[in-house]
Amino acid sequence: MKSIHIYTLIGLLITGLLSSCDDDDKMDPEMPGKVSLMLENKFGDANIDLSSTFTSSKGDKITFSGFEYIISNVELIKEDGSIYAVPDSYYFMGQRSGTDSKREMIEITDIPAGNYKGIKFYVGVDPETNANTDNYEKGELEGGVGMDWGWASGYKFIRWDGSYFNDAENKDVNFSFHIGTDANFKLISNEFGKTITINDDMTSQIHFEVMADKVFDAVGLNEIGLNFPPPADVKTFTGVMVGPEDKATAIANAYAEMFMLHHVHNMEMN
Amino acid sequence: MEKRLILFLLISGIMLACNEDISPDIKPFYIDLDVPEYMGTTVPFPERNPFSKEGIELGRMLFYDPILSSNNQVSCATCHKQELAFSDGMSLSTLGVSGEKLQRHTPALINLAWNNGLFWDGGAKDLESLAFAPLTHPDEMNQDITELVEELKQIPDYKERFKKVFGKDTIQSALIVRALAQFQRSLVSFDSKYDRYLKSGEAGFLNALELEGMQLVEEKCGGCHSGVNFTDLGFHNNGLDAEFPAAPEHVGKGRNRVTLNPEELGAFKTPTLRNIILTAPYMHDGRFKSIDEVLDHYAQNMVNSPTLDTLLTGQNDKIGIPISENEKQAIVAFLHTLTDLSFIQNQAFSNPFKK
Predict the structure, then answer these.
(1) pLDDT beneath 70: ranges in chain B
(2) Is the fold of B8-189 the same as that of B193-339?
(3) Hey, what CATH class is B193-339 in?
(4) Which of A81, A207, B188, B271 could form a disulfide with A262 if both were Cys (CB 3.0 to 4.6 A apart)?
(5) Residues 99-158 of B with CB under 8 A from A
(6) What is the DSSP string of A135-179?
(7) Class of domain B8-189
């Protein structure tokens, strides 16, 4: 008898302890679900790749050699206005120069079941995390993966490189938009206009178009002209690095407006 | 009795299993590094990267290991040499992977744990973040970090050591820079003649000329080279140049490159004066070959500019710091007392791969 009691006790204890290992509060009877956040990189109607040439409304003819940015601190907004903050949500997006692989999709799992009406996320890294670069505890951030500054602590929020036709030089010259620093950490906030249901039985997608043309419509490459000469190649460069300079601020204000919610789907799985 | 023990073991086992990251047998043992009372008794560190003996040792191996560079020939110690208090003796180093001249002079690495901004312009906020710069710069170590991590994972000794230090069965770029930072924070220099004077409180440790020099440095240099570490950790324009051009890469703009504050154009970090006799040439571009040239600069060769530090704008329209020839001698004598031979000979800081 006595031993049975002890083993029951052990059983109860173990169950209790095991469930206390789990951080999620399972108040909702339904199981958590997932959502895909699609960020499709576009220039006007065209998809961005590393070979096409795109023309901005200012007439700049632009070819990308790399198109990268960081998305972080994703929050999903429930129907009742409460918020689910996705833990350690830091994602490297886009396409790096010299590679074929491109990242346009984020899979967010373990979202508490419920009806959701909106999403918030940021371009860049929050000031607290951006104060240093050795952030292996924070999702995909780790440091030294090409989006860190090197000569300063923290990350490049966008890293767009390529070339454009410079009218004054009458030839293609390189450009770089590397923007970071706390002032350029930008909130993107959207309501879906309806609700989507997230749970174990549903598949959901939130689809944005990332309209890079909006940035080049706001800040003309020929208007900036040649500047910031790197040591080797003095007369062939247009760049905006860091911030908050005027131009970095203008670029950041424009990238804060480039995420256009295209649609959300929500389907039952079989 | 026995049952209770089993129960206890079971429960503790389960509780430990909740903590996935650190298993109990490999939990690192954190330590404090002692320094003299006048430096606050222990070496400061960021909360996320406490010292362990094994961590410092791993950092030391990485610091001296050329595997950290793309051609496996350049280590941190290639440019930061212990015998020169971790500087390299060149104005602008050509010791990196490409052999190209670097944009700025290699500073000594002394008592960096107390710094809050690193590099000549303070752009790096801590030693952890800083290490990515030399590792990846094409003219320094030119390393692809992802490849470096893979290379290190192939070496069983490193795998074992990383696990011991960080309690994780993997190697990550962030862990590499944390270990490097632990070692660099351990590079403390407090055993010079001047330190023996400070520790004993007896004037007898310094001779009359050295004591006079100490007074002079306090008076004339202490506005910036302040305290027992001889730096205010601040940024000043000390009158080296009249102009601060943007090319190349804004490096001549100094602190202004980081803050974009026009008042900080041409301002650079005040370096420590500790071991200064060992770390020639001097200034952010290594333009002065000797301490005599430095003193001549402060006394008579200073250049004016709108951001020249107000401590140097002088009296009677003469910019700079008035220093007589006798005073120069006394200052140089005192600067010699800041040389710490045990710092450059300490086995704990030297190349672990050398037998």
Answers:
(1) 1-27, 247, 316
(2) yes
(3) mainly alpha
(4) A207
(5) 103, 119, 121, 123-126, 128-130, 132-133, 135-137, 145-146
(6) -TTSTT--S-SSSB-SSSSSBEEEEEEEEEEETTTTEEEEEEEEE
(7) mainly alpha
